[in-house]
Amino acid sequence: MFSNHAQVSEKAALAEKKLMRLRQEMIAEDDCIVTGSYYEKLPKLTGSKLYDCFMHMPKTVIHHIHLTAACNIDFLVDKLCYYDFVYFNEKDMMFNVNKNGCDLPGYIKVNQLRSFWKNSTEFDKYLKDSILLNHNSIKS
Asked: CA-CA distance, 23 to 50, in Å (whole number)?
């Protein structure tokens, strides 16, 4: 909403295309690259062409990603949400992924939530629709 009137230069558009291509290559090689232990994934991330590009950009920092921004929705729901260490807060529409468990108020294992629905397909559609609704409401 803050960038509605921003103009993207041709150079910036080309850079974004390159970054997205490098991101897709990493995902094709390891579709779980954006999940799991930070320290487990760190060597692969820091050794990637994508990371190299980031390090050559102005204001380099130790980069991090947010799960719902890094994953496409189909991967998030169809694969990640079947692990027993993924939690969801329906009120806040937020995920928590933690192999050590989650005792934050309102978070319930996704697999437990799924068991309350008529079938997995309907629950997965609910999750996808909820994520899309949340994402679309941020953009407007």
From this structure: 7
CB 110 within 8 A of CB 81: yes
Q: What is the pLDDT of residues 9-62, one digit of tens each?
A: 888 888 889 999 998 999 899 888 877 677 788 898 889 998 888 888 776 555
Collapse the DSSP code of 47 into the 3-class scheme (helix H, G, I; strand E, B; otherwise coil) and give the result. coil
Burial of 91 (0-12, 13-18, 19+ CB in 10 A): exposed
Provide the angle, in degrees to the nearest 10, between the axes of the packed helices 10-29 and 49-56.
150
- Between 19 and 139, residue with greater pLDDT: 19
| C-alpha torsion 104→109→115→117, nearest 10 | 60
Task: Please state the pTM of the whole predicted model.
Answer: 0.55
